[in-house]
Amino acid sequence: MRIGDVAQRAGVSTRALRYYEEQGLLGSERTSTGQRTYTESAIERVQLIQQFFTAGLPSRTILQLLPCVESGHASPEVFEVLEEERRRITAAMADLAAARDALDRMIDITRNPTPEHCPSLR
Predict the structure, then answer these.
(1) pTM of the predicted structure, to 2 decimals
(2) CB of 16 closer than 8 Å to CB of 25
(3) Which residues, other chains included, contact 78 with Cβ-Cβ below 8 Å and sequence gap of 6+?
(4) Beta-carbon-side half-sphere exposure of residue 19 (alpha carbons within 13 Å)
(5) How many whole angstroms separate alpha carbon 48 and alpha carbon 69?
């Protein structure tokens, strides 16, 4: 199957497929003219990779997880990697919530200026 066919059926761009290959997440064969060809199973693999990305995992972590998916067995280390990723995402969410709260305060000050915050009102 050619790269455009896989991209269309998996719902991604051909650029994404090339990136997945660069990262070692997806493999292909090459024709004598250098064109990529994929097996039918590449579609399912790309969809799985997309699910991992949707979960916020970076490609280096996905690369660690794919063998577990293929074998049907995950080691305790893999669960630790996933839990660390969850902690990273939770921390990022807390940082974003703090930034949102600070922005809300700035919006309130802008809408309701006081002498404390606006020197021209003093």
Answers:
(1) 0.76
(2) no
(3) 64, 65, 68
(4) 13
(5) 9
Contacts of 105 (CB under 8 A, 6+ apart): none
64: which residues sit within 8 A by CB, 6+ positions away? 78, 81
Residue 87 buriedness (CB in 10 A; 0-12 / 13-18 / 19+): exposed
Phi/psi at 37 (5° precision) = -135, 145
Residue 121 neighbours by CB under 8 Å, 6+ apart = 113, 114, 115
pLDDT digits (tens, 9 = 90+) for 59-72: 999 999 999 988 98
3 state SS for the chain = CEHHHHHHHHCCCHHHHHHHHHCCCCCCEECCCCCEECCCHHHHHHHHHHHHHHCCCCHHHHHHHHHHHHHCCCCHHHHHHHHHHHHHHHHHHHHHHHHHHHHHHHHHHHHCCCCCCCHHHC
CA–CA distance, 5 with 108 (Å, rounded to integer)? 51
Report the pLDDT averaged over residues 25-49: 94
Q: Measured between alpha carbons, how far is 68 from 100 in angstroms, rounded to an integer?
A: 38
